[in-house]
User: Which sequence fits this backbone?
């Protein structure tokens, strides 16, 4: 992976729903500037996806409630291991003749990160698996700030080992 990020060929795949299910979720996201960071990255043509193991209707309802559903290219919510969500996204993009250069998979669960890391050798895309812990909002802000700055080294440093 080179040291600059081609945002139009960058996918951010988030397990974002647990973060959104808190009582103060929208306020927390706004105060931490997460929504505006996603909007800025979208303007740079970065694509955002939701990868969830919660029921689809619930994830879509929560995103719509917070009025951020339009920020996401696709919402994949089913009970399969998340590595299959990524493989499906790549297959769909391939059908459209698109090939990403970088995928950031961001999740707070260790098992999901391990599962996704398994496909690293199967795909021809640079994949960084980032597990955000404890203070989800603060960690998301830090991740998105690094992405916005194009700081690949920082993203590599915090990626799942």
Assistant:
């Amino acid at each position: 992976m080179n040291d600059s990020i081609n945002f139009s060929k960058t996918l951010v795949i988030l397990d974002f729903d647990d973060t959104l299910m808190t009582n103060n979720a929208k306020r927390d996201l706004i105060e931490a500037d997460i929504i505006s960071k996603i909007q800025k990255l979208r303007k740079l043509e970065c694509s955002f996806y939701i990868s969830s193991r919660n029921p689809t209707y619930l994830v879509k309802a929560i995103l719509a409630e917070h009025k951020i559903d339009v920020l996401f290219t696709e919402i994949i919510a089913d009970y399969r291991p998340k590595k299959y969500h990524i493989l499906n996204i790549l297959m769909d993009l391939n059908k459209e003749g698109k090939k990403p250069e970088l995928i950031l998979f961001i999740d707070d669960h260790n098992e999901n990160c391990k599962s996704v890391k398994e496909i690293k050798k199967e795909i021809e895309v640079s994949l960084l698996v980032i597990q955000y812990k404890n203070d989800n909002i603060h960690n998301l802000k830090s991740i998105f700030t690094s992405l916005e700055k194009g700081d690949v080294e920082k993203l590599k440093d915090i990626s799942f080992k």
About this structure: Helices lie at 17-20, 25-31, 34-43, 56-65, 82-95, 110-117, 136-149, 152-157. The longest helix spans residues 82-95. The first strand starts at residue 10 and ends at 14. The mean pLDDT is 90.
